[in-house]
Design a protein that fits this description.
By secondary structure, the protein is of the alpha+beta class. It contains 2 helices and 8 strands. The chain has helices at 16-23, 109-135; strands at residues 6-9, 31-40, 45-54, 57-71, 74-84, 88-89, 98-101, 104-107. The strands form 2 sheets. Strands 1, 2, 3, 4, 5 and 6 form a 6-stranded antiparallel beta sheet that branches. It has a two-stranded antiparallel sheet with strand order 7-8. Strand 3 and strand 4 form a beta hairpin. The relative contact order is 0.12.
Length: 137
């Protein structure tokens, strides 16, 4: 069991719930980060985690479960909790050169120059008040 300890990156799944999350990445401006699973055999726990980014914000959510080895080929898994991390405000407004929208490639390169001053203003604003918004300081 000790060989399972560590953080593992998901490279394949047939789980329909995860496929729905991965499908979000087909939406314009939505980015799905790595889906990871951290296994700690000392505590008999597993944590699954995924991060999602959209313009100006990033968050992640996770589920934690405990497990008990019933036989060499069978585990009893009990889900303990789910957590949605407080969204993080991002100062940079990165606009891709193009996006695929309903099967059509849309050129966004003209927006990049126009949005640069907006991004600089957001950077200043978030550095000034971002922590106060999130933490009520």
């Amino acid at each position: 069991m000790r060989m399972l300890d560590g953080t593992w990156k998901l490279v394949y799944t047939s789980n329909s719930e995860l496929l729905a999350i991965l499908a979000l990445s087909r939406l314009p401006f939505v980015s799905i980060g790595d889906i990871t699973q951290r296994i700690e055999t000392v505590f008999n726990t597993v944590e699954n985690k995924v991060s999602i980014s959209v313009p100006l914000s990033r968050t992640s959510f996770s589920t934690t479960a405990s497990f008990e080895v019933r036989t060499p080929k069978r585990l009893q898994v009990r889900f303990e909790k789910g957590v949605i991390q407080t969204p993080e405000l991002l100062a940079d407004l990165n606009v891709p050169e193009s996006v695929n929208l309903l099967g059509q490639q849309v050129d966004l390169s003209p927006l990049q120059g126009v949005l640069q001053p907006v991004s600089q203003g957001l950077n200043g604003f978030i550095s000034q008040v971002g922590g106060r918004i999130l933490y009520g300081a």
